[in-house]
Amino acid sequence: MASGSPTLSREDAASDPGTLEAGAQRPEPGPGAYCKLCLSEQPPAATRELQGCDCVFCTTCLERYVQLAIVEGGGAPITCPDMACLKTGVLLDSEIASLAPEDQVELYQRVKFERGVKLDSSKAWCPVLECQAVCSVHLSTEGRPHAVPCLTCHTVFCSGCRGPWQAGHVCPERQPMMLPVPSRESRARSSSDSDMPIKQCPMCGIYIERNQGCAQMLCKSCKHTFCWYCLQNLDGDIFLRHYDKGPCRNKLGHSRASVMWNRTQVRSLPIRTRPTVFISCWHCLKRTACTANHLWVVNCCV
């Protein structure tokens, strides 16, 4: 017996988004962009394309990545998180501002400026606490410390020890304030050199000793991060992509998961209550004191 209600053909049902046949499922939306951080497809509206390299990630992952890079990067340029990115694009300030809260953006700009002054041999901070102006340093041909005048508070200080400069002043440092940065050719170390326990920071030249543990080194003087074996710059490599390929492949000393896990454990604690944190090593489970500026165990037995 014919029913009085109108019937819809399959084509009509497909064209009407509010009508589905019995037992039929609503078709999935079309494919979106694939995020290499969360390893899932996201709708185009939830993704962002980096202007420096055209790589696409979901906005949520980029926000977390940028905020982690601000906290852990020490003011270094924030690069594309894709380890296979051929351009290794650097995020613009406008992109960082749209992916992080305002207070974190201000923190990043301040730390980036301080890092630039610290790494620039022609600049120095005025040692007077009430002043803290940036002074110009004219390096001598011998590279030895000399008098630096502050144009703001008119203090004259030593470029080496930052102490007051007086007639007959003898700097206790008695060494060049900034040693020349090794060239690319000089960074090519032999196998015997890579095992040396003491090396110079490739940025500021200060001597650093390593007995064992992680190969990612953090200079306490200039906050420069580099690879112990090849002295490669790792300032923007918070995911430690350097140890995925090349001569330093698998030479990190710890798994990437252990490093990120230890960072997560320390980041979960309030800053004011973590001058010393004890963390269990990912490999040997030995509890080790972890300082605020070194976020992973350095005396693992492996």
UniProtKB/TrEMBL annotation:
<keyword id="KW-0808">Transferase</keyword>
<keyword id="KW-1133">Transmembrane helix</keyword>
<keyword id="KW-0863">Zinc-finger</keyword>
<comment type="function">
    <text>E3 ubiquitin-protein ligase which accepts ubiquitin from E2 ubiquitin-conjugating enzymes UBE2L3 and UBE2L6 in the form of a thioester and then directly transfers the ubiquitin to targeted substrates such as LCMT2, thereby promoting their degradation. Induces apoptosis via a p53/TP53-dependent but caspase-independent mechanism. Plays a crucial role in maintaining the genomic stability by controlling the degradation of multiple proteins involved in mitotic progression and DNA damage. Regulates epithelial homeostasis by mediating degradation of CDKN1A and isoform 2 of TP63.</text>
</comment>
<keyword id="KW-0862">Zinc</keyword>
<keyword id="KW-0812">Transmembrane</keyword>
<comment type="similarity">
    <text>Belongs to the RBR family. RNF144 subfamily.</text>
</comment>
<dbReference type="InterPro" id="IPR044066">
    <property type="entry name" value="TRIAD_supradom"/>
</dbReference>
<dbReference type="GO" id="GO:0008270">
    <property type="term" value="F:zinc ion binding"/>
</dbReference>
<dbReference type="GO" id="GO:0061630">
    <property type="term" value="F:ubiquitin protein ligase activity"/>
</dbReference>
<feature type="region of interest" description="Disordered">
    <location>
        <begin position="1"/>
        <end position="27"/>
    </location>
</feature>
<dbReference type="Pfam" id="PF01485">
    <property type="entry name" value="IBR"/>
</dbReference>
<dbReference type="InterPro" id="IPR002867">
    <property type="entry name" value="IBR_dom"/>
</dbReference>
<dbReference type="InterPro" id="IPR013083">
    <property type="entry name" value="Znf_RING/FYVE/PHD"/>
</dbReference>
<keyword id="KW-0963">Cytoplasm</keyword>
<keyword id="KW-0832">Ubl conjugation</keyword>
<keyword id="KW-0472">Membrane</keyword>
<keyword id="KW-0677">Repeat</keyword>
<keyword id="KW-0053">Apoptosis</keyword>
<comment type="subunit">
    <text>Interacts with UBE2L3, UBE2L6 and LCMT2, as well as with BAX. Interacts with TBK1; this interaction inhibits TBK1 phosphorylation and 'Lys-63'-linked polyubiquitination.</text>
</comment>
<feature type="domain" description="RING-type">
    <location>
        <begin position="35"/>
        <end position="81"/>
    </location>
</feature>
<dbReference type="GO" id="GO:0006915">
    <property type="term" value="P:apoptotic process"/>
</dbReference>
<keyword id="KW-0496">Mitochondrion</keyword>
<dbReference type="GO" id="GO:0031966">
    <property type="term" value="C:mitochondrial membrane"/>
</dbReference>
<feature type="domain" description="RING-type">
    <location>
        <begin position="31"/>
        <end position="252"/>
    </location>
</feature>
<dbReference type="InterPro" id="IPR031127">
    <property type="entry name" value="E3_UB_ligase_RBR"/>
</dbReference>
<dbReference type="InterPro" id="IPR001841">
    <property type="entry name" value="Znf_RING"/>
</dbReference>
<keyword id="KW-0479">Metal-binding</keyword>
<comment type="pathway">
    <text>Protein modification; protein ubiquitination.</text>
</comment>
<dbReference type="Pfam" id="PF22191">
    <property type="entry name" value="IBR_1"/>
</dbReference>
<protein>
    <recommendedName>
        <fullName>E3 ubiquitin-protein ligase RNF144B</fullName>
        <ecNumber>2.3.2.31</ecNumber>
    </recommendedName>
</protein>
<dbReference type="GO" id="GO:0016567">
    <property type="term" value="P:protein ubiquitination"/>
</dbReference>
<dbReference type="InterPro" id="IPR017907">
    <property type="entry name" value="Znf_RING_CS"/>
</dbReference>
<keyword id="KW-0833">Ubl conjugation pathway</keyword>
